[in-house]
Amino acid sequence: MDAEASQGATGAANESDAGVETITSEEALKQPIHEYLDGLEDINDIKLKVARAAVSKALGQPVDKKAFKNAIQAVINERNGNDDSSESEASSSSSPDAAGTGKSRRGGLARTQVVLSKPLAKFLGVETETRPQIVKKLWEYIREHDLQNPNDKREIRCDDALRELFQRDQVTMFNMNKLLTCHVISQKAWNEGKRTFDTYKLKLKDEVAFPKTAKPSKPKTKSGVKRKRRGGGGGGGFCKVLRISEPLQRFMNEETAARTAVTKKLWEHIRANELQNPDNKREIICDDTLRDLFGQEKVTIFSMNKFIQPHFIKDDE
């Protein structure tokens, strides 16, 4: 095998000194990054280290830091309509078979028609659209009306139309995606009546991702030692114990559970029943138990979190 063929056979991976292949191809990373971002319920503040670790785990190989940084920036630019080729790429990636379903060859929720809220439908002039086209049209509007902060292009100053959508005076290229989730629902969930736009209420607190301010130091005790977190209480964030839906109660055999505990038990079930696709470890083939939870025949390790999210019941619901 010559050098060129050898490079192609490794899937654009580079062998490190330790003998472990490190993926260095930005193109090879784009699809897994798309899948990772699609699996996030809210895209607010993307942490490169966390994202790279997740993609590396999904691929089963280490990922080059520089290549990943360039790849995820390219993906974000594409999703935000900053890539001039994004429209042609979306067009060329659509297959004849996908035309009737609203999905492209890349598949996933990113290329599926979604139902729009009344404010977003009014803004775009359509009742359904794909997520990339929603973001692309938003960016066309932002540039046409010169709404980017000249001192920080990541920041968008909302005019009346955007303020009606996002309920704030400014957004960023990252939290704009998060806020858009309040305005879209999958056609399947809409048709089955599982979700309505009442469940996607915007939080009206002032929220600006950039520039970030330094975090205040943790309070210290009189002795000058930083106060340690007390044990018990269930913790916060992903460790917070929440009420869960009846299907998830059957799975967990509990009436409440923390997200971390649910994720752990899900993976125990997946591994015990060998539900990972042997040809693509990122793909989970749902058995009856998972089908009851996700309502899908298969999910990915990224989208699984999104499908489990509706099973957690917040205190105000």
Structure description:
It is built from 14 helices and 14 strands. With 317 residues, the protein is α+β, with helices and mostly antiparallel strands. The chain folds into three domains: 10-79, no CATH class; 101-212, Orthogonal Bundle (MDM2), CATH 1.10.245; 237-313, SWIB/MDM2 domain (MDM2, Orthogonal Bundle). Strand 11 and strand 12 (280-285) form a beta hairpin. The longest helix is centred in the first third of the chain and has 15 residues, at 65-79. Residues 1-18, 82-110, 199-218 and 220-237 have low confidence and may be disordered. Residues 109-186, 237-314 form the DM2 domain. It holds the Pfam family SWIB. Residues 215-231 have a biased composition (Basic residues). This is SWI/SNF-related matrix-associated actin-dependent regulator of chromatin subfamily D member 1.
Secondary structure layout:
Layout: H1 3-9, E1 13-15, E2 21-23, H2 26-38, H3 48-59, H4 65-79, H5 86-92, E3 113-116, H6 118-124, E4 128-130, H7 131-144, E5 148-149, E6 152-157, H8 160-166, E7 170-172, H9 175-180, E8 184-186, H10 187-191, E9 241-244, H11 246-252, E10 256-258, H12 259-272, E11 276-277, E12 280-285, H13 288-294, E13 298-300, H14 303-308, E14 312-313
Antiparallel strand pairs: 1-2, 3-4, 3-8, 5-6, 6-7, 9-10, 9-14, 11-12, 12-13
Helix pairs in contact: 2-3, 2-4
Biased composition (Low complexity): 88-99
Protein name: SWI/SNF-related matrix-associated actin-dependent regulator of chromatin subfamily D member 1
Domain DM2: 109-186, 237-314
